[in-house]
Inverse folding.
């Protein structure tokens, strides 16, 4: 098999929907721990499933059987999208499963949360990728061999991490500023670890479908499958691979059904097979069959977003940077946490979309940023996100304290609270018993049996009072213990001091109140 | 005695202190013996007040009529509404921004709707605001010729021309009420058109009421007005039943320091951010809240983000009705770092809600309050000190809360109203001579 004779065309679709956040107000901090706008999420998911995912999947399934397995595509379905399918549109999962069964569809790995973890922390990034790898295996029975990062974010460094995790290829943008004179239409490899193949997106041909297809002012409008195939054919003498990477929502959502996008998709494979020497391949077939021509040097991260093809769509202003830093500051603490819901929220809050909504560049790509955007302004997006993040932090502090010292304080604190509750309850009981007593004595009945009950009631009151006193005593002891411990660990950091001071304050209050009650 | 009053906002549609002040004062005046008030307001937002349109039914009649009944008052205040685009607290520059924003909003919502009328509007906002004021003054003249009254009272600059034309038509004396001057609003960058309108109003008035001595000084020195003509009547505050708001649930342990107001240059929001940064370096168990909206909000958010304190500094956006009291009930310190505040009712409301207050010396309310921390608006260190002190020493905050409540409960609108009524009497008797 000579590699040079092989020419490949590789289709890749991104499937992702974030959990959009509800309007979360300052007043909700520490009280409301549910962050998602169920109505919006469900209605968008239902709409997109019906307009895009289901019909497009059906067409692709049809094409695969019609072309006797010569038509191949690849998908990356994020963990968050899978969760939403399960919640709102389970039939989409079944439909993807049917695609998986054909053997002509490859599912790629990415971060579970469609997150920016690759820019923050290697361990967290790997954790998320492994989670996603596992998820895809569970759903579709195939372990992904090829990786593509959130929104095609890629650098040499990220590539080497991915290679170390055992992936054989990675997908990214054929950004002009990294390619220079080079063509994206060849297979490349990573500079640090040349065993990792790098597939570069042909953004002209990809955007012809994704952005320009239904643009009537475009001089090539209307775009037909034959016309598109002829463009690809023109590239044939100087190309070995054509990579068409697009959002799956391109079909039916960004380009409505009426634009003819589905007809285009339906006729494209036949046109390409008839008019061009290119064969459809999945990314791992590309990696197995084609030889890389050179290493591609990408020292700073690139992505497929916006004109700039860099990270500024997510990390381009102070707001995004502040939110990003705050979020990933919590990484270690969340990972120590065992609570299921904290883990879920951690995943959902990491979706890159939240940062995308905070973007303040409104030039050529403003429209793209507005897709499914629930906010009126990036500032609103930021305020809402930060409030939610604050609540998330409060929860972590409560449920998963950072140090043993804090754990101890928390333990005593919760004990104090429990005791408080008991005291309050008993006080209420005393109150009701007293009232009963008054009622009884008010009736002034001479019957001795009633006297007896009165005495009983009085006894009850007395014992209750005793009980509550002992409760307070043990409280004081507890509090004193806390104070002692805090004194011992005086040298520790400020944050801890603050908490202990608070507890100490509580303790002193309790002391005075108990002293009064003793008198 | 019958007073024809021109204002520009009336509850429930209020956007700031002026609406509160003119409402409180009017209520106070009406509660006095033998005093009636006819209150005229331009329609502020147009969206809420469909009642006016419904009552008249024709778009080309600029005057709408409405009766307003108030709880606890036997007599009614008659309110007239004039259809107008006037927005309170604006100068032409800001008006342009506001209307532009509104138009942009509409554009983004109705992309495919042709809004020709709106497009025609573009570029003429400057002229348009002055048009609106002119329109208001015409209506004022119509009203003045139809109604019976003894004295005219106009609140702040957009209503002065209306007051003047009513005065010219009726020959009745004019009192103007200065709640703020262009010097406060613009931070020194005075718009000459607005200045002219203010100056003409002050010249035409028989008496000028200012909300503080600070404002009185500005009127005398910057507008060249005879000091004898200018008198200070301090604002007051409606008593609030605190018990109602006591059951607010706070879901976290940290203390809360609150800035509540429009986020504009005049209110000194940037000092609040810097103070927050300073305090947060010293203590962690505190959250800062900037409640309100305004033209500087986005800049403030960016500043806070670049200081990396947005996990402890929260923005709530504009708060309405009950939320204001909820906010106050959650607060442990209220701070008003205004660069230039003619009066400032909000600290009084905070004190009503048992919140210790820190106010800038550059505010009118500082002239009457004893139990409040007073600092220069630029003195970030002093403000940080005060916040730290109040939050750390319960004895200190307890003292402020107790004495503050006693103090503020005595600042009543009835007193301000009696003072205003006295001024009316003087003016009328002088006018008759």
């Amino acid at each position: 098999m000579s590699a040079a004779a092989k020419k490949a065309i590789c289709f890749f679709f991104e499937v992702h929907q974030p959990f959009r956040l509800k309007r979360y107000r300052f007043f909700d901090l520490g009280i409301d721990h549910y962050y998602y706008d169920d109505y919006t999420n469900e209605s968008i998911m239902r709409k997109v499933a019906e307009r895009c995912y289901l019909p497009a999947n059906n067409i692709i399934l049809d094409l695969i059987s019609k072309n006797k397995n010569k038509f191949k595509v690849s998908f990356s379905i994020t963990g968050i999208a899978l969760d939403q399918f399960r919640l709102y549109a389970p039939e989409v999962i079944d439909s993807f499963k049917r695609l998986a069964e054909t053997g002509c569809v490859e599912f790629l790995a990415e971060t579970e949360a469609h997150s920016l973890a690759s820019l923050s922390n290697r361990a967290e990034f790997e954790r998320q990728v492994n989670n996603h790898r596992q998820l895809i295996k569970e759903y579709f029975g195939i372990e992904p061999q090829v990786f593509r990062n959130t929104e095609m974010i890629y650098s040499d460094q990220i590539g080497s991490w991915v290679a170390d995790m055992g992936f054989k290829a990675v997908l990214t943008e054929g950004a002009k500023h990294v390619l220079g004179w080079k063509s994206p239409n060849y297979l490349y490899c990573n500079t640090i670890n040349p065993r990792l193949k790098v597939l570069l997106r042909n953004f002209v041909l990809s955007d012809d479908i994704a952005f320009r297809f239904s643009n009537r002012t475009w001089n090539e409008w209307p775009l037909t499958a034959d016309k598109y195939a002829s463009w690809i054919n023109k590239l044939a003498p100087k190309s070995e691979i054509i990579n068409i990477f697009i959002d799956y929502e391109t079909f039916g959502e960004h380009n409505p059904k009426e634009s003819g996008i589905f007809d285009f998709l339906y006729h494209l494979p036949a046109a390409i097979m008839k008019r061009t020497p290119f064969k459809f391949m999945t990314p791992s077939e590309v990696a197995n069959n084609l030889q890389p021509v050179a290493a591609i040097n990408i020292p700073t991260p690139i992505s497929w977003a916006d004109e700039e093809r860099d990270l500024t769509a997510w990390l381009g202003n102070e707001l995004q940077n502040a939110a990003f830093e705050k979020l990933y500051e919590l990484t270690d603490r969340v990972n120590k946490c065992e609570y299921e819901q904290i883990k879920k929220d951690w995943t959902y809050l990491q979706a890159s979309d939240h940062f995308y909504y905070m973007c303040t560049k409104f030039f050529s790509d403003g429209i793209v940023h507005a897709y499914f955007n629930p906010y009126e302004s990036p500032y609103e997006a930021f305020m809402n996100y930060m409030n939610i993040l604050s609540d998330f932090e409060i929860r972590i502090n409560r449920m998963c304290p950072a140090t043993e010292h804090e754990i101890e304080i928390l333990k005593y604190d919760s004990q104090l609270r429990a005791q408080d509750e008991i005291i309050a309850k008993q006080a209420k009981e005393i109150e009701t018993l007293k009232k009963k007593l008054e009622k009884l004595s008010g009736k002034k009945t001479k019957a001795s049996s009633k006297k007896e009950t009165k005495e009983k009631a009085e006894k009850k009151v007395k014992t209750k009072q005793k009980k509550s006193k002992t409760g307070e005593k043990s409280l004081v002891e507890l509090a004193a213990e806390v104070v002692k411990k805090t004194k011992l660990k005086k040298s520790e950091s400020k944050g801890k001091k603050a908490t202990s001071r608070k507890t100490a304050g509580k303790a002193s209050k309790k002391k005075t109140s108990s002293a009064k009650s003793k008198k | 005695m019958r007073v024809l009053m021109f204002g520009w906002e009336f509850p429930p549609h209020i956007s700031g202190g002026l609406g509160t002040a003119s409402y409180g004062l009017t209520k106070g005046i009406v509660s006095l013996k033998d005093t009636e008030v006819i209150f005229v307001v331009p329609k502020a937002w147009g969206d809420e007040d469909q009642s006016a349109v419904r009552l008249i039914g024709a778009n080309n009649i600029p005057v709408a009529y409405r009766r307003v009944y108030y709880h606890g008052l036997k007599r009614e205040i008659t309110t007239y509404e004039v259809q107008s685009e006037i927005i309170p607290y604006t100068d032409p520059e800001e008006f342009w921004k506001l209307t532009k924003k509104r138009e942009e909003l509409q554009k983004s919502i109705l992309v495919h709707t042709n809004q020709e009328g709106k497009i025609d509007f573009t570029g003429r906002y400057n002229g348009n605001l002055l048009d609106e004021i002119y329109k208001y003054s015409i209506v004022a003249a119509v009203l003045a010729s139809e109604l019976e009254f003894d004295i005219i009272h106009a609140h702040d600059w957009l209503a002065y021309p209306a007051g003047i034309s009513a005065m010219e038509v009726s020959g009745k004396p004019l009192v103007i009420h200065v709640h703020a001057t262009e010097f406060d609003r613009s931070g020194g960058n005075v718009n000459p058109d607005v200045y002219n309108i203010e100056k003409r109003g002050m010249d035409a008035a028989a008496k000028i009421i200012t909300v503080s001595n600070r404002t009185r000084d500005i009127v005398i020195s910057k507008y060249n007005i005879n000091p004898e003509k200018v008198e200070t009547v301090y604002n007051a505050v409606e008593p609030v039943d605190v018990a109602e708001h006591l059951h607010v649930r706070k879901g976290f342990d940290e203390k809360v320091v609150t800035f509540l107001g429009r986020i504009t240059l005049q209110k000194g929001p940037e000092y609040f951010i810097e103070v927050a940064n300073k305090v947060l370096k010293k203590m962690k168990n505190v959250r800062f809240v900037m409640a309100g909206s305004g033209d500087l909000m986005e800049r403030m958010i960016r500043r806070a983000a670049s200081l990396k304190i947005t996990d402890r500094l929260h923005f709530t956006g504009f708060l309405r009705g009950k939320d204001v009291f909820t906010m106050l009930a959650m607060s442990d310190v209220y701070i008003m770092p205004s660069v230039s505040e003619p009066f400032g009712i909000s600290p009084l409301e905070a004190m009503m809600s048992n919140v210790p207050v820190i106010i800038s010396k550059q505010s009118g309310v500082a002239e009457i309050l004893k139990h409040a921390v007073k600092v220069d608006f630029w003195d970030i260190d002093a403000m940080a000190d005060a916040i730290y002190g109040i939050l750390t020493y319960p004895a200190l905050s307890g003292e402020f809360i107790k004495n503050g409540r006693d103090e503020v409960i005595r600042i009543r609108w009835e007193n301000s109203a009696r003072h205003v009524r006295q001024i009316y009497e003087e003016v009328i008797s002088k006018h008759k001579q």
